[in-house]
Amino acid sequence: MKKCFGGHPESFDTIVAAELQSVQPQRVEKKCGKKLKYPIGATALVPVNNDRYLCFALCETNPETCKVYADVPTLWRALQGLWHKARVVLGGNSLVVPLVGSGTSGVGLPARELLDLIILSAIAETKQRHITNCIRIVLTEDHFDEVDLKETKRYWS
Questions:
Q1: How do 43-48 and 51-56 pair as beta strands?
Q2: Could you say which DSSP state residue 143 is in?
Q3: Between the CA of residue 28 and those of 62, 100, 103, 116, what are the distances in Å?
Q4: Higher pLDDT, 59 or 48
Q5: Whole-number Å distance between alpha carbons of 17 and 126
Q6: Using DSSP, how many helices (H) and how many strands (E) does the chain show?
Q7: Are 107 and 76 in contact (CB under 8 A)?
């Protein structure tokens, strides 16, 4: 957020609100954080300089502790929203997706299984309708020991 918006989250919020104007958010009372809750999978195109980010709702939030959480069905729904928006806005251009579900979301799967889940979700969605020409899944260095990319390639080829 600081890198892209200079520490001014209001700019991000304004872009998201405009992008999701057709999606009715729910107002929630909680001790901290944002007060608008978008449905899981709601996805906004957020342009920053020459880059375009697809930001999607992935987690629920406990209103008392402000801790976020997600499970496998929630992650699947979130990815479906991402794939749908990607179809509409990318025009076949590449989509770069981080290994979602491995951080604070608490999905609880090892990196290898999260990678397989993201790939399976993309394949299932592509069988219904083409998403885009190229999807790249980004792994951070801390996941390199957990995922054998050669094995992944053999399995999914």
A1: antiparallel
A2: G
A3: 10, 24, 24, 33
A4: 59
A5: 28
A6: 5, 8
A7: no
Domain definitions of the chain by residue range? 2-156
In a 3-state reduction of DSSP, which class is residue 152?
A: helix
CB 70 within 8 Å of CB 78: yes
Q: What is the pLDDT of residue 51?
A: 87
Closest CA to 90 of 128, 57, 136, 123: 136
Average pLDDT over residues 127-153: 92
Residue 34: pLDDT band by 50, 70, 90 thresholds? confident
Residue 44 burial class via C-beta count within 10 angstroms: exposed 0-12, middle 13-18, buried 19 and up:
buried
Q: What is the dihedral of CA 42, 111, 94, 149, to 10 degrees?
A: -160
Task: Dig out the tokens for 79 from the structure.
Answer: 């990815």
Beta strands in 2-67 (DSSP E): 26-27, 36-37, 43-48, 51-56, 60-61
Domain 2-156 falls under CATH 3.40.220: yes
Sole residue written with tokens 């790249």: 136
Confidence of residue 3 (pLDDT cuts 50, 70, 90): low
